[in-house]
Amino acid sequence: MNLRYARRKAVNAINMSASAVTVAVGLAALAWILWTLFYNGLTALDLDFFTKSTPAPGTEGGGMANAIVGSLLIVGFATLVSTPIGILAGVYLAEFGEHSRFASVTRFVVDIMLSAPSIVIGLFVYALAVATTKHFSGWSGSLALSLIAIPVVVRTTENMLRLVPGSLREAAFALGAPRWKVSLTVTLRAVRGGVVTGVLLAVARMIGETAPLLFTALNNQFFSVDMNKPMANLPVVIFNFALSPYENWQRLAWGGAALIALVVLGINILTRVVFRDQTRR
Fold this sequence. Notes:
The protein has 281 residues and is mainly alpha-helical. The chain has helices at 2-41, 47-51, 65-96, 101-115, 118-133, 138-162, 166-174, 179-190, 192-208, 211-215, 234-242, 247-280. It has 2 domains: 2-44; 47-280, MetI-like fold.
């Protein structure tokens, strides 16, 4: 018995040590990436960065005001489209589609969309919207990002709702509430923190997507809020500027990458703090 216990203890110590080393390596790599990103990018985040448009090749100064506004518009409209569709679809799959063939097909399609490369979705929207309208546009970019975000929101919402205990639903049914009202006002409210986290994950993925926007929104050197025309956006501008031979463009690319990282990090921290305080109340 003592020998078996000692052997188990040794195996446990080896596994725990290996896990600790793996975590340390991962954290070290993450810290190195963030340090490089912020070291090179924070110096570019001055007033001109937020107030001036992208400069012409070989010129000094400039900023990314047009790309920032373009990304806000494209991602904003994509979020407005994908959030209600994704949440309602997730509610249907978890609450009403337990034994439905249509729900099984929907889950299969959602899984395919989750694993599909973003460039494939970009090409699909290009053939669907850009090729038919004969021009690039911000609306096409929002459509492509919506197709990327919807499966993330659907899967997260469904998984969160399945964690709700059945006794909570039974208590609401016992009070005479219809099933649709129980789903929307009881179970969905119980997991609102997880659902919002899923939406934020989708937003974080949309903010950094480049390939779909290359085929849909393309780019625009000038400031524009017309969603029916090619529109500048941070991912594409960062991609183009990072590959350029101009130091000023490379500096702006680092600044854009740092801005995206800060925005995603700030949204996640703020949401966690807000929902933690609500839970305590």
